[in-house]
Every structure is written in structure tokens, then in C-alpha cells.
TrEMBL record:
<comment type="subunit">
    <text>The basal body constitutes a major portion of the flagellar organelle and consists of a number of rings mounted on a central rod.</text>
</comment>
<dbReference type="InterPro" id="IPR019776">
    <property type="entry name" value="Flagellar_basal_body_rod_CS"/>
</dbReference>
<dbReference type="InterPro" id="IPR001444">
    <property type="entry name" value="Flag_bb_rod_N"/>
</dbReference>
<keyword id="KW-0966">Cell projection</keyword>
<dbReference type="Pfam" id="PF00460">
    <property type="entry name" value="Flg_bb_rod"/>
</dbReference>
<dbReference type="GO" id="GO:0071978">
    <property type="term" value="P:bacterial-type flagellum-dependent swarming motility"/>
</dbReference>
<comment type="function">
    <text>Structural component of flagellum, the bacterial motility apparatus. Part of the rod structure of flagellar basal body.</text>
</comment>
<keyword id="KW-0975">Bacterial flagellum</keyword>
<comment type="similarity">
    <text>Belongs to the flagella basal body rod proteins family.</text>
</comment>
<keyword id="KW-0969">Cilium</keyword>
<protein>
    <recommendedName>
        <fullName>Flagellar basal body rod protein FlgB</fullName>
    </recommendedName>
</protein>
<feature type="domain" description="Flagellar basal body rod protein N-terminal">
    <location>
        <begin position="14"/>
        <end position="41"/>
    </location>
</feature>
<dbReference type="InterPro" id="IPR006300">
    <property type="entry name" value="FlgB"/>
</dbReference>
<keyword id="KW-0282">Flagellum</keyword>
<dbReference type="GO" id="GO:0030694">
    <property type="term" value="C:bacterial-type flagellum basal body, rod"/>
</dbReference>
Length: 137
């Protein structure tokens, strides 16, 4: 029973969110480090949209109404992974670099707040679990 509480879908989603935030921090830091590198193209991490799609598909799965219909693989929450996308369609300067330092710094601050909120939520989950195990003490 304890194993199922520690490996719940809520914990799984929060772990993936922490992993995505950590990866996003690395990607944004790399973008900032290359702000003056000619022809450098920034990257972004996508995760939240994929997670939202997976969560909505779990609520309303696609059903096959006929045996000849093609099977549809629904993406579950456990299959969602953060992805790095390189933005190649824009350029802010004559040297083809597309890193906007102000945007990257704002993204870094936003990501830090997001990471701390997710870490706080995981901490509260396990604190509540510990309280239950200790009989509310």
C-alpha cells in the first residue's frame, strides 16, 4: 500500500514537472550563454502542453467503434517527456542569432518560480503522507 502512495500518478506528474523545469533551466542558461554567438539559434522546452493533452485524453479515451478502424495509441501521463525544440525561424540580429536576453531572463525567473512551486507541492504531499503514517503527530 505504501508503495502505491509513493508511486501515485500525482507524484509521477510532479516528478516529470520537476524534470522538465530542470531541463528548461539548462536550456535557458545555454541560450543566455550564447547570446553573443553568431548564428546561434535558441532552444525551448515543451512539456506542459503535452501533459495537458495526455491528461485530457485519459479522461476521454478514443474508442474504436469497428474492428476495421485503425487503433489509436493514446498518450498516457507516463509517456509524457519534456522535449527540446530549436527555434530556427527567427533572427534578431544581422549575425542570425535569435536570443533575446530580456526574454530569456524573464523565462528563467518564471521557470524558477515554477520549479519552486512544484517542489513545494511534492514536499507537502510527502509531509502529509508522513503525518498519516505517524498518526497525525
Amino acid at each position: 500500500m505504501l508503495n502505491s502512495l509513493v508511486q501515485s500518478s500525482q507524484v509521477s506528474v510532479l516528478e516529470k514537472a520537476l524534470s522538465a523545469a530542470s531541463l528548461r533551466h539548462k536550456v535557458i542558461s545555454n541560450n543566455i550563454a550564447n547570446v553573443n554567438t553568431p548564428k546561434f539559434k535558441k532552444s525551448e522546452v515543451s512539456f506542459e502542453n503535452q501533459l495537458e493533452l495526455a491528461m485530457s485524453s485519459e479522461k476521454a479515451p478514443i474508442a474504436r467503434t469497428h474492428e476495421r478502424h485503425l487503433p489509436v495509441k493514446s498518450t498516457g501521463i507516463n509517456d509524457v517527456e519534456p522535449m527540446i525544440n530549436t527555434i530556427t525561424t527567427t533572427s534578431f540580429r544581422n549575425d542570425d542569432n535569435n536570443v533575446d536576453i530580456d526574454s530569456e531572463m524573464a523565462g528563467l525567473a518564471k521557470n524558477s518560480i515554477y520549479y519552486n512551486a512544484v517542489a513545494d507541492r511534492i514536499n507537502k504531499y510527502f509531509s502529509n503522507l508522513k503525518s498519516v503514517i505517524n498518526g497525525g503527530k
